[in-house]
Amino acid sequence: MSGRIESERETVIIFDTTLRDGEQSPGASMTVEEKLRVAEALEELGVDVIEAGFPIASEGDFHAVREIAKRVRKSVVCGLARATEADIDRAGEALQPAERKRIHTFIATSPLHMKYKLQMEPEEVLERVRESVRRARRWTDDVEWSGEDASRSERDFLCRCIETAIAAGATTINIPDTVGYAYPEEFADLIRYIRDHVPNIDRAVISVHCHNDLGLAVANSLRALEAGARQVECTINGIGERAGNAALEEIVMAIRTRGDILPFRTNIDTTKIMAASRLVSAVTGFTVQPNKAIVGANAFAHESGIHQDGVLKHAQTYEIMRPEDVGLARSSLVLGKHSGRHAFRRKLEELGYHLGDNALNEAFRRFKELADRKKQVYDEDIIALVDQEIQDLEQRVRLESLQVACGTERTPHAAVAVRVNGEVRQAEAEGDGPVDAAFRAIREAVPHEAELQLFQIHAITGGTDAQAAVTVRLARDGQVFHGHASDTDTIVAAAKAYLAALDRLMRRRERSAHDAVAVGSP
Question: Is residue 518 part of a domain?
Fold first, then answer.
């Protein structure tokens, strides 16, 4: 695509809600430090608007939004608020340090939600729309209004709400498919209806926020763009409540790849997509499925002989995108045990990591240990190693040591030493297998009532010396907590993943003692 044609295309605003809607995925809660890292990655990616959180939800959310507002300069920083004075003022306070800020306020507009959730009459909702937008305008000129459950709302009433919101000062109007119910052509028709029936719609940008309950979030979003929407709300890796949201990487690459039918452009630097995907996966513990579009491990892999032959002759026979376009390095074997610190730093930068001297030194030490154990060190190995290093630095519950004895002639036995807030605790236990014994020993060292819901292993690369990537899910009181870890020793990786999930559980328990609970969202 030539530069001239690209510049003539309309720009689609990318509104990323990984830090708000994405974090509402069960078990995907992030610490303030993790949110800051993700926010910085989103800004580097070129995201136009970063929805940093729901400030009134908790002190932790307020603090995270405020810290992100201090750090981010190029992207707009957005805070979510229900249509109440307390919510809006709290969002305004959190966003005060931001160079560019937006308040996103919402209220339900469907008959079902108004009757059973809000217990309000339509006229009351209309007045609340007017009041909430006006209140938000006291804090910023950039105000977004959403009609929650818009796709199941009565169209004429939804249009009245939109007209009211724009008259009160809203500059962006978001149309959410909150429960993922819409069908692509039906959703596109709703956008066209709004454009035809809201007299002041030309004063606002139409946005869409699609959930993936029927697997149609990306399709609905793209059809909405064709119908006149110019902002898409999405998340990295498609994470979010229930089945998730429209995936940023799929929206962006669909626009880039199918410019023949989607005459738009975005401000996203697509070469940063893989780095952002890996970071979000690492901090949430949500492993990306191998066949996930754009960022899955198999997205650019070819096993079929016919496919391999075609790709070798001409890549476009089976690849509609280049791996380099999304930041996936073509090289496989990259470094070995004789590689120096300078080469290691340069490789990290190629992979999207910029570590301080202390973190770099520790990562380099771990790399040398890994290189001694593995014959071949791949990019994926280095990514896993650095993600593990970053996670270990932030965890307050960490594995100090683990010894496991097992075999056909004995009951598996594990002895662990776990550091909890600086205190080392030791314990031993037997189990049905080495992993079960390790988990039982950890429970003895750090007593808790959580239930193990998921234990999943996959190899990061090929070969018997491959690092094992382990995901663990713990559940307690209706909440779930994920942990993710990697190591060439599968049992060690399992123990680290278990402790990572336990660390998140303990942090949430501390926060819940004094945090309020958010109610509802688009």
Answer: no
